[in-house]
Structures are given as C-alpha cells and as structure tokens.
From TrEMBL:
Catalyzes the reversible conversion of ribose-5-phosphate to ribulose 5-phosphate. Homodimer. Homotetramer. It catalyses: aldehydo-D-ribose 5-phosphate = D-ribulose 5-phosphate. Its EC number is 5.3.1.6. This is Ribose-5-phosphate isomerase A. GO terms for biological process: D-ribose metabolic process; pentose-phosphate shunt, non-oxidative branch. The lineage of its organism: Archaea, Methanobacteriati, Methanobacteriota, Methanonatronarchaeia, Methanonatronarchaeales. It comes from Methanonatronarchaeum thermophilum.
Length: 234
C-alpha cells in the first residue's frame, strides 16, 4: 500500500519558498513535517524574521534546531499564530490526507490550535477526490480490535513496517500506524468521524475542511487551490 508520493521537487521548492511571505516577526509558527516543510524552514531560516517554532515531529525539531530556530512546546506557548504543513493528497474542496511520514497526530493537534493553517503542496498532490490510504495511529494494545473495526467500516488495514528495522513502525508518541484502504473517499467528513469513534485510535490522517488555505506549487508558480478548482469547473 503506497502511502506517500514523491511529488515534484520544483513544485515543493516554489511553494515552500512562497509561504515564507506569510510569516512575520513575533509570530508563533507551527512547523509541520516532511520534505515540503523542509524547504519552507530552510527558506525561513535565511530571512530576517524572529519567530518561535512549535514542531510536529522529532524530525522537524532536529531540523529546526539545526537551523537555529527558537523551538518550544505547544503547551508552553498555548496557541499558534500560523501553522504551515504539507499533505499527501488534497481534493478540490481542500480536504487533506496526511501522515505519510507518520506525523499526523501532532500535526493535527498543532493545526487545531492554530489561528491559521496553511497547507503547502506540489501540484501532483491535488486530485478531484481522495483515494490514498488513510494512516491511522493506533495504541499497540488495541491493534487487533481496531483492525476489526476498520473492517466493519468497509476498509482494510495494514500495519506499517519500519523499513529500517524489523517489525512495526513506532511513532514519536510510541504507537503503531495502520494504513487503511477505503477506496475513493466520497464523504471525508463522515469517514473522519467514524474512524475517530473507534476506541484505540489515537488519531487519523484525514483532515476534512481543516486548512484555511491550500497553496499549490508547480513549474508555473504558486496558485491557491480555489483558483485551480475554479478552472477545473469551467
Ligand atoms: O506525516 C507526514 C506529513 O503528514 C507530511 O506533511 C506529508 O507526508 C507530506 O510530506 P512531503 O512534503 O514530504 O510530501
């Protein structure tokens, strides 16, 4: 089950660089996770802006500290002015699938406590409907039961393996990730609620209607998702 697309490097570069324009000195900024966010952080580090960063993964925290950012915990700052994060797939209504890097739990928490959540993707991530696997972070103790409940919802779940070591991937929060195939997701909001109702699910990677804006990068530059949707509907 392929959960992550490589995406287009040029699209990531242009959108990661452009989103820096939304950042002002004094802001608390949510730093998402992934390669597109990596472009954003490297660009931001080179600008004359003084921000506090709240990181959504150990991976991002290591990068942010290396780049010299003032990194603090969400609990210590209380709320975030602007969260910037990537996604694995975006539909024309701005619903997202995230968690290809298994960071979606912290990403969703930070996005939820942010005044503004801006998603940055390259154009290979945009589709008319969501159909990639939905990653679900699961408490290890409840794994088999959660897999059963996913089946009851009409999905199929596969435990994500680590790749580098034998056995399952363990998240930054000490949990497992199950990648679930629900085929074409016609009602993301409904599926999101249904998965959240399963006891033992820590968080899932569907982000329905959470992004305040989605910026899409390509070799033609950066556009807002709503412009792209408008063109498709014509
Ligand atoms: O868990 C990982 C995150 O949700 C990432 O934001 C997502 O996988 C996109 O990553 P990338 O920018 O590397 O394609």
């Amino acid at each position: 089950m392929s959960v992550k697309r490589d995406g287009s490097d040029v699209g990531k570069e242009v959108v990661g660089e452009r989103v820096v324009e939304l950042v002002e000195s004094g802001m608390v900024v949510g730093f998402g996770t992934g390669s597109t966010v990596g472009v954003f952080l490297r660009e931001l580090a080179g600008r004359d802006v003084d921000v506090v960063g709240v990181c959504t993964s150990f991976d991002t925290e290591l990068l942010a500290r290396r780049l010299g950012f003032d990194v603090r915990s969400l609990s210590s700052v209380g709320s975030v002015d602007l969260a910037v994060d990537g996604a694995d797939q975006v539909d024309f209504d701005g619903n997202l699938i995230k968690g290809g890097g298994a960071a979606h739990f912290r990403e969703k928490v930070v996005a939820s406590f942010s005044d503004r959540f801006v998603c940055i993707v390259d154009d290979t991530k945009v589709d008319s409907e969501l159909d990639l696997p939905v990653p679900i972070e699961v408490a290890p103790f409840a794994l088999e039961n959660v897999l059963g409940e996913i089946g009851c919802l009409g999905g199929e779940g596969v435990l994500r393996s680590c790749g580098e070591k034998d056995g399952p991937l363990v998240t930054d929060n000490g949990n497992f990730v199950v990648d679930t195939d629900f085929g074409r997701i016609q009602k993301p909001e409904r599926l999101s609620k249904e998965i959240s109702c399963i006891t033992g699910v820590v968080e899932h990677g569907l982000f329905p209607g959470m992004a305040d804006s989605v910026l899409v990068g390509s070799s033609d530059g950066v556009r807002e998702l709503r412009e792209i949707k408008g063109n498709e509907e014509r």
